[in-house]
Amino acid sequence: MSTSSETFNSLWDYCTANQRVVPMPQKWSALYQKLKGTWQKPTGGWEPPIPLILAAWHDTSALEKQLRLREHLQWAEKQDQLQEIGIFLRALDEKDWCHLGES
Question: What pLDDT is attached to residue 102?
Fold first, then answer.
């Protein structure tokens, strides 16, 4: 599939293929850094919420991680960044992904 025709569904399908859950923490952080328009709330949280890495990595389920990644992809869609984020994610090696049973 050409990345020029990237849609939310095509990218989500790719991100969940082969039992992928989320990019490994360092790559997920890099993805988040690419998102445009992120901002810190007065309460200290972030919009969109930050990746579930560091201490949160071990305290969250695979489903919780996938839902957070989904939020990031939805944010990218709203920011008209699906092509850019799709190129980044599709360029990751399989070893750069956490798979079901690994998280």
Answer: 85
